[in-house]
Recover the amino acids of this structure.
């Protein structure tokens, strides 16, 4: 399995551990990910709230780069990148008026022929849970997790076509395959506050706080995510949430690739656990998943 | 040939844009036109008298009236010709209003066009042939498909006029959805109290035959003469012997969920769906009966004092002839399991309006108490969500189901009546309470019964700590609302029966994208279909409440009676005719006819001295649409009054 890989800005900065663990998991499963050379912004928030055309031209530029590599499919991990690339393809496929404008901007013809997949999709639907299960060397038994999907992974459904809109389950399926125990909880797609993180932090503290509370109430010891912004809001802001709402949350927030890496026997040091604000090591030790790091 | 041309001013409708005098003058110069004139209103009595006088005076044998669309006054002028002793089909209408004066401004150009239209009409009328109306016999018996309140009402009205009626109902009892209801809005009389007398009336009428557990298998024929095959499913109980004593179902050991009670209660495998069922005889649900599953048991047969239980009973197919058919197959509730935000139908305490009806019914599965299906505890805080499936193009249907606002208001009131400590919360988009005393009813529920109405959608329902957490928006205050509810009731919309499209195809009647049956005209023929002799009653045409259902049922009955009182059925002669000599029997017309008005028939060809197949038009069914004439390769099929020759004649004038 060969894919062009689009990391996006987060995976090269705040979500470095997502990038590291993705590459490790891919390596362990013989999935070849080749980073798109000279990739640019995916057209997320700063672009799409200011200029619609820019938010299409940027992802198209990246997809054309991938085409030049000879790739049919691009894999991405960040939910926002996934959304922008998919939306751009949808416009280029269905909307000739927009296609014409975008082609003029990027100076090349493109009709959405490079398909976009989320890494989760590749693992669950292409590599397959059965195959994956056979590669597991260390079951994460006893680890109760709340799988949290956020907004952009499933919405809008006509664009993403990834998972159940109201009750997504791909991460849950994956966690079950590696022996973890996903809890049934109603907040899988609640809003974490997203990019208000910087401009209106109070909103994020409230919304992410509610999510942590629900995960806690339903018995989860950790949260598993597939989006850098979700991770950052739930992990990095957890301390501020505790202070503001007088709570004692100590809930590690993992990328699904990190736990998958552990299950596949990847050396823990390569999965970026040190990048977390809420230290996940004690919980992993408690469950017998980690020895001494 | 003596043609008269009569040009109408229609006040200024025509004369304001078309120079009518010039048109009359131009007409007078056309071949065979012996007379032309204008008049202010040709359709008025003096206008008709003018035509009559001229026909007599000038001995005219054909007439062209230049006026409005033939859809409006063609009949008027045909009658005028008939009265004057001329065959009524020797007239043409030149539509110089809708096709000319109304759509143009420039008088000179409009006049030129009007003259051209008149020329075509004169050309056509010169090829008109005298035609005679045809008559067909009528089978004086009516089939009603569906034994809900609509079918029952139609049956009562028709039986009152002493015509025989057959009701075909697929459930074991007539009564339909109304039998499941508790109270009815806005008067709150009990549904059973007003329905069961009507059920008894039809069951006692010597003019009404009821086939329950039965479905329509096949329909052929046409208005006045339908032949229908009805499948009577094996009931396993002989209706002639059964006295409805109850010995069998009291002893039956097999229990299963009762569909009538929306699976909130149980019934036995041999059962009557509800105590007032008509016929008052049980049916064996073979899927759950121990005798049918394991060949053991057989208790019901042993205890029946009348020997009415027949395990070997087979489906029976009967064939009957009918003059008219009323389709009254009703509706079903929208399946809310497409709504993930309400839990995909997984939460036990998220129920539908019909569940609530059964719960508040004192003879229902909870004895009239509003209980949570999950733990049987009495529900105190109840959230009602309106427009579930309705007005939702993404997950449901685009239309408004019309009754949910009212039944939800009724539920909010009944909740309070059954438990004075209870609190109703209603999430709505708009309150649509258009009906006599409907708005007053809703207002009363809000003001006197303390129901809290919140304008907005519910975004999520989930279980937490034994409660249902209902999150939604109150768009009037702009606030987010969270309610800890014991029970959530979804006002699921009304949708077509799952097999509605199949039935429509069997009946040869059109249906829309929602599988609702299509009326002949949305305003002026709401109870008819475009298939002569097939009529619609109740919610199978569109969602309706009980008053509207009963009204349409009586309307359909009136239409049927209008048909049945005739000795013979008069049919317009403007229909297709086959020239057997030219017909090659290719069946193209047979395939093209949307009304199934063409049959293939074998004839003895005396010239060729062998048998061959030709098309034949069923005079009672043909509507004269002309599809067949367009597809006929041999030009063997022609439309009376619109013959190929007439059309060619007109084209020659352009």
């Amino acid at each position: 399995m060969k894919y062009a890989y689009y990391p996006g800005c987060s995976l090269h900065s705040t979500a470095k551990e997502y990038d590291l663990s993705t590459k490790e998991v891919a390596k362990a499963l013989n999935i070849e990910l080749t980073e798109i050379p000279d990739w640019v912004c995916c057209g997320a928030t700063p672009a799409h709230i200011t200029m619609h055309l820019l938010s299409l031209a940027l992802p198209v530029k990246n997809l054309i780069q991938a085409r030049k590599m000879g790739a049919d499919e691009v894999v991405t991990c960040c939910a926002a990148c996934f959304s922008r690339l998919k939306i751009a393809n949808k416009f280029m496929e269905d909307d000739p008026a927009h296609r014409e404008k975008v082609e003029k901007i990027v100076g090349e013809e493109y009709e959405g022929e490079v398909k976009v997949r989320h890494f989760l999709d590749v693992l669950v639907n292409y590599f397959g849970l059965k195959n994956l299960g056979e590669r597991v060397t260390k079951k994460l038994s006893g680890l109760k997790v709340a799988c949290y999907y956020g907004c952009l992974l499933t919405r809008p459904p006509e664009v993403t076509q990834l998972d159940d809109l109201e009750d997504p389950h791909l991460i849950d399926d994956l966690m079950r395959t590696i022996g973890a125990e996903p809890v049934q909880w109603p907040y899988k797609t609640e809003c974490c506050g997203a990019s208000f993180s910087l401009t209106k932090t109070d909103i994020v503290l409230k919304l992410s706080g509610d999510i942590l509370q629900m995960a806690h109430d339903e018995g989860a010891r950790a949260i598993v995510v597939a989006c850098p912004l979700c991770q950052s809001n739930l992990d990095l802001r957890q301390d501020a949430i505790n202070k503001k709402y007088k709570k004692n949350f100590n809930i590690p927030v993992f990328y699904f690739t990190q736990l998958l890496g552990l299950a596949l026997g990847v050396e823990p040091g390569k999965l970026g656990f040190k990048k977390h604000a809420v230290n996940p090591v004690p919980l992993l030790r408690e469950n017998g998943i980690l020895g001494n790091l | 040939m003596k043609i008269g041309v009569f040009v109408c001013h229609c006040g200024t409708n025509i004369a304001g844009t078309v120079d009518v005098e010039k048109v009359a003058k131009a007409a007078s110069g056309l071949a065979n036109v012996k007379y032309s004139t204008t008049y202010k209103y040709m359709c008025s009595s003096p206008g008709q008298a003018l035509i009559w006088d001229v026909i007599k005076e000038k001995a005219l044998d054909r007439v062209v009236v230049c006026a409005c669309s033939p859809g409006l006054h063609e009949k008027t002028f045909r009658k005028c010709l008939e009265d004057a002793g001329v065959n009524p089909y020797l007239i043409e209408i030149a539509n110089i209003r809708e096709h000319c004066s109304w759509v143009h401004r420039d008088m000179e150009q409009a006049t030129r066009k009007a003259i051209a239209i008149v020329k075509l009409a004169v050309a056509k009328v010169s090829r008109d042939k005298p035609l005679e109306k045809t008559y067909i016999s009528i089978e004086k018996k009516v089939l009603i498909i569906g034994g809900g309140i609509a079918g029952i009402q139609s049956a009562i009205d028709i039986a009152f006029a002493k015509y025989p009626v057959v009701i075909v109902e697929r459930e074991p009892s007539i009564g339909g959805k109304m039998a499941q209801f508790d109270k009815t809005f806005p008067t709150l009389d009990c549904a059973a109290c007003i329905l069961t007398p009507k059920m008894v009336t039809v069951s006692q009428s010597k003019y009404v035959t009821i086939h329950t557990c039965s479905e329509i298998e096949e329909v052929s024929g046409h208005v006045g003469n339908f032949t229908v095959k009805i499948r009577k499913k094996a009931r396993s109980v002989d209706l002639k012997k059964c006295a409805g004593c109850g010995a069998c179902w009291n002893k039956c050991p097999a229990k299963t969920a009762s569909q009538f009670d929306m699976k909130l209660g149980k019934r036995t495998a041999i059962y009557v769906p509800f105590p007032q069922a008509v016929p008052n005889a049980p049916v064996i649900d073979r899927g759950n009966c121990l005798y049918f599953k394991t060949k053991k048991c057989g208790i019901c047969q042993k205890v029946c004092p009348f020997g009415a239980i027949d395990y070997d009973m087979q489906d029976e197919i009967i064939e009957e002839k009918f003059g008219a058919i009323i389709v009254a197959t009703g509706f079903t509730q929208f399946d809310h399991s497409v709504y993930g935000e309400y839990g995909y139908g997984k939460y036990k305490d998220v129920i539908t309006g019909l569940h609530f009806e059964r719960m508040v019914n004192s003879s229902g599965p909870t004895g009239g108490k509003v209980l949570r299906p999950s733990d049987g505890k009495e529900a105190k805080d109840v959230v009602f969500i309106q427009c579930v499936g309705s007005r939702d193009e993404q997950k449901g249907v685009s239309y408004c189901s019309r009754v949910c606002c009212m039944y939800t208001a009724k539920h909010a009131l009944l909740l309070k009546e059954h438990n004075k400590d209870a609190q109703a919360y209603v999430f709505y988009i708009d309150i649509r309470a258009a009906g006599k005393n409907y708005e007053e009813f809703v207002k009363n529920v809000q003001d006197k019964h303390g129901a809290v109405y919140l304008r907005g959608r519910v975004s999520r329902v989930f279980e937490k700590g034994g409660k249902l957490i209902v999150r939604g928006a109150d768009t009037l205050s702009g606030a987010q609302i969270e309610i800890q509810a014991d029970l959530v009731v979804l006002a699921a919309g009304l949708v077509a029966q799952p097999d509605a499209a199949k039935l429509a195809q069997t009946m040869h009647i059109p249906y829309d994208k929602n599988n609702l049956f299509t009326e002949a005209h949305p305003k002026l023929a709401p109870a008819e279909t475009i298939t002569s002799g097939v009529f619609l009653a109740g919610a199978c045409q569109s969602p309706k409440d009980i008053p509207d259902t009963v009204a349409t049922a009586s309307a359909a009955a009136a239409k049927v009676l209008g048909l049945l009182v005739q000795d013979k059925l008069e049919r317009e002669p403007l229909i297709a005719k086959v020239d057997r000599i030219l017909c090659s029997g290719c069946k193209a017309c047979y395939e093209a006819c949307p009304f199934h008005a063409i049959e293939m028939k074998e004839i003895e060809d005396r010239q060729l001295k062998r048998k061959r197949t030709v098309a034949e038009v069923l005079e009672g069914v043909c509507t004269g649409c002309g599809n067949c004439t367009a597809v006929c390769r041999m030009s063997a099929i022609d439309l009376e009054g619109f013959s190929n020759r007439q059309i060619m004649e007109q084209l020659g004038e352009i």
Notes: The CA atoms of residues 90 and 503 of chain B lie 41 Å apart.
